[in-house]
Amino acid sequence: MRSVIVGTAGHIDHGKTSLVRALTGVDADRLPEEKRRGITIDLGFAELDLGDVRLGFVDVPGHERFVKNMLAGAHGVDLVALVIASDEGVMPQTREHFDICRLLDVKSGLVVLTKTDMVDEELLELVRAEAEELVAGSFLEDAPIVAVSARTGQGIEELKEALREAALGVPARASDAVARLPVDRSFTMRGFGAVVTGTLVAGEIEEGQELELLPAGVRVRVRGLQVHGAGVRKAEAGQRTAINLGGVEASSVERGMTLAPAGRLNATQIVDARVAVLADSPRPLKTRQRVRVHHGTSESLARVAVLEESGEIAPGASGLAQLRLESPIVALPGDRFIVRTYSPQRTFAGGEILDAHAQKRRGRDRTAARERLAALDGADDAARLAFFVVSSGERGLRRAEAASRTGWRDDVLDRSVSEARSRGAIIEAEGVLVGCDAFERLQRAATEEVEAHHAREPLSRGMARETLRERVFAHAAQEIFRAVLRRAEDEGALIAERELVRSSRHSMELSPADAEARELLEKIYRDAALEAPNLEEAFARAGGDAGGRERMRKILQLLIDAGALVRVSGDLFFHRDALERLASALREYADARGPERLIDVAAFKQLSGVSRKYAIPLLEYFDRERITRRAGDRRIIL
Ligand SMILES: Nc1nc2c(ncn2[C@@H]2O[C@H](COP(=O)(O)OP(=O)(O)O)[C@@H](O)[C@H]2O)c(=O)[nH]1
Ligand SMILES: [Mg+2]
To answer: Ligand 1 within 6 A of 151 CB?
Structure first.
């Protein structure tokens, strides 16, 4: 059977609670203080079974001091009964509650004129006209207006029939989302323990299920469930639900918290939203304004950052704004909320959350933010998902994060991911979602980085994988790094080995035997220092017989290109390190000599320890390198 939540709305003393009692027999004013003062302070609940539909009533307080409690009840309402007392007509909270219903996007309802026993026909017609004027142009424009008296019972049966029809016309709740129950009450029941109640706004909750109480993050277990006062195994979206919880004390659960499947949703403190300001608000919504945000059963203070050019949203207008909440809430895109002024408290705006996990937007990226958020208007699931993925940039969005951002069930998420992929908007890298643009940017940057490395170090076989990751993928998930390399390999641009990444265009690739010969040849010269070996001998020692002279010449060239070996003359090579040490020794020698700075061949032979056969070519090399300059038989050390 269908369950529909009916909320009362209207000014204090207009007969809301009496009406609920006349319909259901239940006195929703359950608190002793409510009985003593004769007013409704907090939410009251009652049920009415109408055969083919079951109504769950949420009776709200009308007093202006308790609008906060009214809001905690109004969030999950399918259908509103806007109550207007025939003897008083439209009063301030009639308007405020009606505004709240419109801002919360309540889609159906009816108007109930109460206390008809107190007025004559003429006055009743006046109030009816006033009610019609109030609801003109709103969702209640064509709604029935039913006149009743809770005292005499007049009109009550007719009202039941009107409620039944309206309830049957309420569209079924969207079933895309996982379970969410904003808690409105918690108490301890003798012999049972903690019980929490609320309207299950989405999904299903089953007996035995593990849930999480957010934002506290406490894991709890469903010990038992009640819907409309009867035990059930499963509660469904749109039902007033009482849950007996294991794993928590009732005292640590409070109104404003949310129950959701364990590990599925995350609380948030920054949301981007479309906000409408009421036409009769005396002031616009402004950047930096401190406001009260009512969402679900929660109330949180928040700082506003209007994303519109003007920095404000005028009365009667709507625009984009970011809300920075002072305490975390569990929100999802599509959720409605109400904004009240800080002090005095007055309802003046409300809206719909577009991105529940937004990033702080600063002045200059407001325009970009506005354009991107505007793209969400009318976007389908796949486009919405792509929006969240693209917003996460190079970091990418894990599936679990996507689940928390959207609140979707797995099958809805899967469907949207494949659709967004087939549109070419996103890529999935081992479970991490990333926008195509970001992915391609990373791939280009990686290829460029590797090529720059080859240009810098032509002898190196490739770039260390880790260095590449640090330079280009510092903000990206490991999965994205691996996927980019795979893609670049598939496209033939890069070759990724265990530790190294190289460009496929890099032709210096050596066979293991060649690489070994290269290292050996370099080592021979490094170890020999100034006693440089004969080239043929060095080749023989480094390369053995394989490939012969031709091959060793190439390897020698690699070492020369890399700057490791230096040709001093003909086939006479030295290791660069040895030459640098000798050049420093020369300068030290000169510094010790004072201003003269002269050296002859004999002194040079002694300083370097080389024979005349090497001394002359070395000195000529130093002359060429402008380390020395010839002056007759001697050299000036520069
Ligand atoms: N004469 C008359 N009095 C009513 C009727 N309904 C409610 N009242 C009285 O109006 C007062 C406020 O009613 P209540 O249901 O508490 O109003 P609420 O503040 O809107 O919930 C109470 O004293 C009720 O007895 C009605 O149909 N006829
Ligand atoms: Mg009441």
So the answer is: yes
